[in-house]
Amino acid sequence: MRSVAGLAAILAAASVSLYLLSAHLPPGPQPGHPGSAVGGEDRDRQTDMNSTTKSKLKFPSDLDELRELAETLRFYKREHHGYVLLLFCSAYLYKQSFAIPGSSFLNMLAGAIFGPWEGLVLACLLTTTGSTFCFLLAAAFGKQHVVQLFPEKVALLQRKVEENRSSLFFFLLFLRFFPMTPNWFLNITCPVLNIPMPIFFFSVLIGLIPYNFICVRTGSILSEISSLDDIFSWGTLAQLLAIALMALVPGALIRRYSKAHLKVDGMDSNGQGMVRKSR
Predict the structure, then answer these.
(1) Can you tell me the distance from the alpha carbon of 132 to that of 262, in angstroms, rounded to the nearest whole number?
(2) What is the number of other CB atoms lying within 10 angstroms of the CB of residue 152?
(3) Reported pTM
(4) Residue 231 — pLDDT band, cuts 50, 70, 90?
(5) Which residues lie closer than 8 Å to 166 by C-beta, 6 or more apart?
(6) How far is the C-alpha of 190 from the C-alpha of 158, rounded, in Å?
């Protein structure tokens, strides 16, 4: 009970902090400032966006909400880049630290707000940092609960970790490239499996680069598309092809290595093997 109460207290404090950060907004961009709109129509748009920003600051659950939030924050970032960056980082770490699904939307939001390269760096750093916080929280408060809630799945992972102990880093990379089990489950299970922190940290940092790149680049493209014709332009198609190659090449190399050096029998893609084992 003490561990549950401690985790609940940390969650409550983080929730309150994130709420206060999103509720106390600095003034939005004003007409006449460098980089701000000055036309009558744009001034009306500024007033409308300033008045509705607070109501739009919520985690997106679909692409429409994502594009709306991205437009609002890009507008707001003109004069408050530091605040938008702090708010985004805080929201991302909140989701990752407490194993809340939805990182793909935040990765796309990073690309839409900060661009493909700054967004990619942010996504990689925040994914790794948030996953590490989740690892530490699970180690401090949740080891016994993870085992009690998922005994068969933990046992299967434990067996595979021991079988691949000599190539542990590449085994974890394989799991990140090919999600045999969700990333959030790996984050809370690794402390139970006695995975060393450095190996965990760098396996997340490197293993999720292709996934983060796909999401961030997709978000950047979505923010630039205004009609269906834009989707089928040569430039957009070339970018989508580059995204596909970025995802396929590292995955193919890891899969080839795994066939020769790793033991992953009984673990199918998307966790199907684990599901069958747990039934």
Answers:
(1) 25
(2) 13
(3) 0.76
(4) very low
(5) none
(6) 9
